[in-house]
Amino acid sequence: MNTQELLSRYQQGERNFRRADLRGASLVNRDLSEADFSGADLRGANFSRATLRSANFTAAKVGLQQHEKILLTSGLVALAALLGAIAGLVGTLVNLELRTYTGAFEEVIAGWAMVCLLLGFALISVLEGIVSGFSVFMIAFVVAVGVAAFGPIAATIIHPLAFAISSAIALAITIISSVSALTVIAMMVVLAAARAFNLATALGVAAAYLLTFLFSVVTTDIMTSVVPVIPCVMLLSAYLGWRAMHGDNRHRLFRWVSTALIMNWGTRFREADLTYARFTSSQLNNIDLRGAILKQVTWEAEEGGEPPVISTGKPYQRL
Predict the structure, then answer these.
(1) Which residue, among 189, 183, 214, has the nearest Cα to 202 in the 3D structure?
(2) N or C: which end of the chain has fewer CB within 10 A?
């Protein structure tokens, strides 16, 4: 059934559209109140700003069409791989710079600087949120840029060893800040894959990031001290993302980014009026409900069951 046929039948008074194939249909701004879409295939359909009061979506198929699944999966994998390649390249090149201009003693100082900065980032991110954690990196990076800019002048005033140590710390800050930031962003991509598909797909996206990172490191012919940072930041990001999906607003950046990556895919009910609509037993993955009116909507997967996880960009609330 195409869009025009559905609208024509609806205007003639018909409300029974059970098991209709409406994949990719555009029904923006349409009034389809009390329509029965039980068992219909609505994957990829666009109901944005539609009036769907008392509509029945029992057992309807919503979410991604097959080609959307392929495109979205490919896009998330490619994005994670790009971030991994950049993180590996940045980490190793800056580490090469560190080893070129410093000795063993300065490398030890730089290593401890990395550990301290990473611990500070983790502690503040857990307690205050990822945005506050990134502010630590920002301040540290500004300090690193200042050292690099005024280093030649400072070297003539302070002891050369002190300058060497400060330079090593500055380079360490640059490494840990850039690589950790890229890793956190990559974990947001992984979280988007988990929300859009499943854990297996998310692990595949994470593997794409790790493999491209390690490839970038190996091809520079140097074992970089930043390699252990990656799993630590990924585990931290996974925890913060899990907290964000369970309603912790301190980490809402994870929820916002992962939502932005997947919201324009699948079935869209953006700003639609779904008052008294029923989604009983429907598979509710990858639907866009931003701005929708959800008064007295029935969500249960089955009678007495738990409400499904839906991609609204905010925690589920029973209305």
Answers:
(1) 189
(2) C
